[in-house]
Every structure is written in C-alpha cells, then in structure tokens.
Amino acid sequence: MSARLRLFLWSAVAALAGGLLLKHFVFDVYRVDSASMEPTIMGSREGGERVLVHYGAFVPRRFDPVVVTRQGEGKPLVKRAVGLPNERVQIVGGDLLIDGRRLGISIPRPAPIPVLDTRPGAWSEAFFEESPGSLQRSGAELRLSASGEQTARLLLRGDVHDDFFDEQRGLVRGQQSVNDLLIDAEFELAPGAVAGFELTDQGDLFRVEITRGAEQLECSLIREGEGVLAEQRHPTGRRLRFFNIDDSLCMRIDEHEASVIAGGENKLDPNDVTGAGKHLQPRVRVWVRGGSLLLRSFQLSRDLYYTERGEYARKSALRLGMGECFLLGDNSAVSRDGREWGPTPLETILGHPTHIVWPLERWREFPAPQPLEKAAR
Predict the structure, then answer these.
(1) What are the structural domains of the chain?
(2) Do residues 294 and 141 make contact, with C-beta atoms less than 8 angstroms apart?
(3) How does pLDDT run across 48-60, given as a tens digit for each residue?
(4) Exposed e or buried b for every residue in 206-237, given b needs 16+ CB within 10 A?
(5) What is the model's pTM?
(6) pLDDT at 219
(7) Dihedral of alpha carbons 274, 277, 279, 280, sign
(8) Were 327 and a residue from 79, 123, 180, 291 both cysteine, which residue would form a disulfide, CB within 3.0 to 4.6 Å?
C-alpha cells in the first residue's frame, strides 16, 4: 500500500470518527414532522423540517426551545420551556401566568405571529368598508377618505383566530379565537384629518387617535369609558405600533419612546350573556374623519394563545420542582405537551435547537425570544 493511499485512508477514518463524535456529543439534526411548533417549525409540510440541535444539559431560559426525550416516545420532541424550576405556572384565558402574574412586556418571548398582512393581499378577504367615505386600493396600499364631519371606516370581518402564514405566505386558518393583538401600520395622514386605530378585547375597546395639525402629530391612547390614558406629540409620524397584550397597552410612533399602560383585566361584553368572555365586537377598526388616511402597509399580529386542554396548569397553578420545567408547543391547539404530561425533568433535555437546516430553501436561524417592547419598535 502506497504512502499516499495510507494517508487517504487514515484521513477518511479520522473524518468519519470526527463526524460520529460530533453527532453523539456535540450536535445532531432532528426531523420535525408534526404541526405542534408551527409556524416556528413547519413540521406538517411534506417531509417536515429538520432542526440542528446543540447537545448539552442546560437550564433553559423562559421560552428557549428545547429537545427532550420522553419514555414511550419514538423520537425526541421539540417544545418551548415556558415554566422554570421552582415556579408556579398556570394557563388562564389563553395567557401564561407565572407565580400568579402575566408576563411583563420586558420579558423575552416569541415574536407576535402575523394573521393579516397587506403584502400578500389579504385586504379583500379580511376587511369591509363602512360608508360614508371612499376606499381606494393600489397594490398593498389603501387610501381611506372622508369629507367634512363624515367618518369612513374599515372593520375586520369576523373574529381573530390562531391563524398563521406558511412559508409560501399562504394563510393557514386556525379554529381557536384569540385575544391579544398588535397593529403595525405605516401611514400618511392628511393635514387637518383625524384617524383612529382600534382594538377590542371582550367588552373593552382601546384606541390610538391621531390628529395631523399644521406643525405636529397629536397622538392619544384611549380606553373607552376611561378616557385618555397617554398622549404624545411629534413633528412627524409615519409608523404606528399599537398592542394590547397580557393586559398591557402600548403605543409607539416611529422610534419615539413608547407609552405603556397597565390595562388591567378585561370587561365582559354586555351581550355576552353566558359570561364566556366572547369577542362580539369587530376586533379591529381603522377610521378617518375630515380628510384622508393612506395605509402604505398594515399588519395585524397575535400573541401566542395557549388553549386550556389537558389536566396540568389549567384549573390551578402547577408547582415545579427544583429540577423541573414546563413545556408547551407554539401551535397550542394541536400540540401534545406539558398540559398532558405535567412537569419535565431537566435531565431529559438533550439540547437546544439553533437552526432549521432542511429543506435548504427554508434554512433559517431559530428565532430568539425578544421583549415585547422591541416588537413595538
């Protein structure tokens, strides 16, 4: 055997051994073929998606993705760690409560999930116009106009559910009605006009009202029945971020400092005779009076909504032990997770996903949790 051939064979053996060591001790690739983490991991599509997992025991931070093994399961599972050691975790009204409280907007969490976006052209399906006034569409842009004291309105058709956009920008319809919403709009308001962006939640109505004066933009954050909660004045304004999430209201114009208000518990709708917390009002309204409002883009997003199924962390808080965490899937309506099996021992965590690596055309980094206040920037 020649020296060159021996070198080649030893190199091949070393590469194979190195690959096996990396696979068994550093990282591996797992196939996800369920819908439980959609839209973060599009597992229900043909062939699913494969995630790159970094091995190693660790204590996860809140909302970190993890890969775990469970007795009786044929393969590892990918979920999020939402409850951490020594905490009390509970699901109430679709929200996550930790030690009896909803999360603040400074706590990193998965990004809100778009359910309506002008870019894929969803206007005609989602909104309808209320006369008087006029409505003009041009691609993703929409101009709403009203003269004098008239008010032209757009209303969202129907309720907001746990929908999401797939990798082809097609809307995947959900079945579960959700609560916490976020508006992200790029706009131009004519001088002298007044515009309103409204969100409702059960019996509450929240509004950002914007007036274009001669020299500045006047913006008010309003809760119906309580009046103005916060005011801002800016020389210009092109973008609005407005959300009602986890009982926190937030208004941000462009990159100016946000106004954040603790909204408190929602009131029931007067027509909700069963007391079930139903959404009976239009969930979103956009209106203008005395001029025109040009929407260059408009996106409506929802927070993660956890359905109250299973037997753990529902009717009462679940106390986690020193070496335990609580796992949930992003696509809560179809996910089997801690609601069914309870706490997860930290020792069963194999590692954490870092990237979606297959199919190659959908390669992307696993999105890191971000504070909600960054979602309003």
Answers:
(1) 27-109+306-375 (2.10.109.10), 113-270+277-302 (2.60.120.200)
(2) yes
(3) 899 999 887 678 9
(4) bbbbbbbeeeebebbbbbeeeeebbebeeeeb
(5) 0.89
(6) 96
(7) positive
(8) 79
